[in-house]
Amino acid sequence: MMSTHEKTYTTKANFMLHGGDYNPDQWLDRPDILADDIKLMQLSHTNTFSVGIFAWAALEPEEGVYNFEWLDKVIDDIYSIDGRVILATPSGARPAWMSQKYPEVLRVNGARVKQLHGGRHNHCFTSPVYREKTQKINRLLAERYGSHPALLMWHISNEYGGECHCDRCQGAFREYLKKKYNNDLKFLNDAWWGPFWSHTFTDWSQIESPSSIGESMVHGLNLDWRRFVTDQTIDFFENEIVPIKELTPDVPITTNFMADTHELIPFQALDYSKFAKHLDVISWDAYPAWHNDIESTADLAMRVGFIDDLYRCLKQQPFLLMESTPSMVNWHPVNKAKRPGMHLLSSIQMVAHGSDSILYFQWRKSRGSSEKFHGAVVDHDNSSDNRVFQDVAEVGKTLEKLSGVVGTNRPADVAILYDWESNWALNDAQGFGLKTKRYPQTLVQHYRAFWEKDIPVDVITKEQDFAAYKLLVIPMLYLVSEETISRLKSFVAGGGTLVTTYISGLVNEHDLTYLGGWHKNLQEIFGISPVETDTYYPEDKNTVSYQNRSYELKDYATIIKLNGATVEGTYKEDFYANTPAVTSHSYENGKAYYIGGRLEDQFHRDFYQEIINDLELQPAFSVKHEKGVSVQVRRAPESDYIFVMNFTEKKQPITIESLVKDLVTGEDVSGELILERYEVRILENKK
Ligand SMILES: [Zn+2]
Q1: 323 a catalytic residue
Q2: Has this prediction a pTM greater than 0.70?
Q3: CA 141 to centroid of ligand 1, rounded, Å
């Protein structure tokens, strides 16, 4: 873990980046519009633009015929107003001539159907032609712009995702498996539980990627395919950056990560904990559906905070918000406008959780095609007078006062463990409730207990150092290797507090169950053995009694056999009434808790309050407030930067006990204040 007060300038800019995706290649026949863009950039208090993301057809209109002059002018014009450029490689979408001449670049889907040219993000990651073409254009971009003073960083491709099942990819998958299993088919058959349904492979060529018209029931195969897709995507990325690393070794590299957006959870299809190691800076595209009809503003804000904390911790340094919308998107089921105040609040929340930028998709709305109604800084009216443009300018003016925040981090004593592989395996498991596993959502349920109390949380992945934390929470960690189990044991032995739940520690890294009961080391740490897990229908309920209060239980209840642990809570109903539901156990210098059932939010509040008291966990800065207000802190050597945010639709009284400075108004602030709906205050506490 980084030292808690050190600053990390991830982009070598000592100011907050404000701007976004700029697609001048859609307006090359309208020099008047491009000239207006430069004027409007200044009026909007923006300073950084991502260019070239989907510009391959404009850069290479025919194979081997290049046209960079328009991009020269765009970059020079941005620099002339002291703007900076995040230069993209164009591999996210390719010109039609390429698909036509080299059909191998087209993806084949899981049903083995070759896709036509169209859309974007639809190339084969293995295709030698696509890899060669990508390297070629990237080299030309790096040669031409590598030393341009406006160049801030590289934006490699765009929103990597998807998978290809073509013959080349099948070959690459088999090579991946040969390497992983030491060229030993018996090792693979053992790991995949081959004899089941006669699925023993006798030749590598028999192995195919999972398919709706073929194999989907071999969990070891599914898991290895998901791992391969991540590895092959990274391999493609590594191929892309060869000329960039060679020609511009000092320019940082990012690619924009995503979230899965219907219920805002971390992106599921790629293991970002692996991808992060190949990037200099983490960036992501955040599109929460504010003002939706299923959850409160505060609940959505909490889930945004969870993903921010996960992505920030992938490198334990500030990240960038690469895309967001100043108003609405075009792909939510209902594309609602941000209410007054929400744009500033939702932008500053990203900064509060560690972003050193507010960047948008998109600078200017397209005139045609699918994104013509996606929110943008500049609307079809080409005006600076409308509400959205003014909201953007207000964010810009605010960010100009936050240069001290750039590079600062957020130390935490609490970590929640997120694991992509465990989530894949759990979703694959045919058992428990097929619709109620909800691993990311379960983690957010635990995160809530800390978010509501303003206690900073790191959301970490399994290869990170557990010893840096006082409390480690690992809900539903279904897949866990022997190695991770030993590290958890050392963590508790060394004085750490560990919390886990039902459906944890059931399978190893091959998705093979542990035999002979719960793993011996887990039994030792927790002083229990989970013996049976009952799954509930949606209408089923139970009650757990904990500290003389009753809490509602849904979905899951694990029956626990004690082996030295203390009973903290018991089930009240069913054939396991009055048996342990929540336990604690002292192990060497630490303590381990097991929560047997999926309990309501109030249980987590009360349960974690006890641990917060025991471990003397504190908010990074104390502000008294009601529910729906969040206080987040970024810490610099000389100052703490405090973000007080009202994620409710009403006025909220807050009390600040020390004297701090409001960074926007410049005035000193102390005592009782009223936050208007969606108001945010940014305060500095000088040390
Ligand atoms: Zn392929």
Answers
A1: yes
A2: yes
A3: 26
